[in-house]
Each structure stands twice: as structure tokens, then as C-alpha cells.
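Session log. Operator J.P. requested a structure for one protein chain; no other inputs attached. Running the standard single-chain path with C-alpha cell output.
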Amino acid sequence: MSNESISHTYIVIGSKPWNRRVFNELIVNYPGEWYFIGKPEGFTFEKISSISPRYIFFLHWSWKVPDEIIDSYECVCFHMTDVPYGRGGSPLQNLIIRGHRQTKLTALRMTSDFDAGPVYLKKDLCLEGNAEEIYIRATYLSAQMIEHIIREQPEQVPQTGGVTVFKRRKPAESEIPELGSLQALYDFIRMMDAEGYPRAFIEHQGFRYEYSRAVLYEGRIVADVTITPSEG
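Structure written below.
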């Protein structure tokens, strides 16, 4: 395919407010014509077909992408593990609860099998801070990777090695379990601390205590606590 025949139109998909912020701040200024879709109702095959993009980039998306879109367009997602380790749901929480402090952010081609597609590139990603800080950090890094992909159009490399699959966490799993250290408790609180995620909580005598903005220092945790009546 000649450079003249390659489309320079791109779509970015992202459901979180920081996705749109990074799009407006950085990505829209890259070469080409850019579109952003932030809600499921705006993401249809008819809409995608009318734009006919070279790539569709998924920054953060919790809904299944229709096979007809995956099969018709080059869809690139950003997964927060060094695949094939950590395919599957809730990658950030599963990494932190396993004690990881660093990971790889992987740009891979979407296929009908979750997180199993070939890889464009990987970049180091730090897992320090609360979940929202990490997601924002990952979005900025994704923007850098997007620029590299549209400029260099790297070849996709099949994944190799043993496969480890993460299970998507359920809201009830945010209840704080018995933990063996302050560090483990701090990690549990921070890994759920992002907009749209169920905060770490405990239930006690008819009330629900939800924790956020945790800081660990000098042998103690200081955090914000929101107290509401327990449901039911």
C-alpha cells in the first residue's frame, strides 16, 4: 500500500474524563484527522464506517467491541500488563494485589479473543500512586505510543510465552479483607481509588466506610473516609 493510499483519519475511544483531556491536550494535534468517541451509543458500525479510519485506538473501554468492527478495522488497545502475562480484566488491581510496582503498557491489536492479539510495542509503566493517578499516567503514555504507531506503522509481533489470565474483579471484592501489613492495606485502598471504581470499604454496625486519598508514612495510613448507611 502506497503512502498516498493510506488513510490519515483516526478514531480514539475512551470512556474516562482523563481520556478526553489527554486527547484534547495532545492527540488531536498529531498529523491527520482525529475523532473522539466517549460513549457506547456513539460507537456503532455505521458511525465507524462513515469515518473509515486507518486505526481505532482504545484508551479505556469497558464494553465488548463488535466483531464486525474488529474484523473490518485495525483496532489498537492499550493493556496494562506484559502480555501474555495478565490478559483479562482489572489488570491494574490484579497487578497491585500481586505486589507489582512496575509493569508494561502494551499496545496490541484487538482480536475476538481478549488481549490475545499481536503486539505493536510495549513501554515501562510505574504503578506507584492511587489508581486514578496511574490511569492518567497510562493515558499520557498511550498518547506517546499512538504518535509512534501513526508515524512508524510498526509491524505486529505475535505474543509468545506462557499465558496468565486475570479475572475481572466484582464490586463486592472491594470490601477490605484481612491483610497482614499496613503496606498491603494501603495498596488495597489505592488500587481502587479512581473515578467510577468501587472504593475499598468495610461494613460495621449498619454503616459503610469507604476509603480514598490514602497516604502511608511513619507507620500509619491517613485517608479520606466517606460514611454512609449500609444498603439494606
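Operator note: The mean pLDDT is 94.
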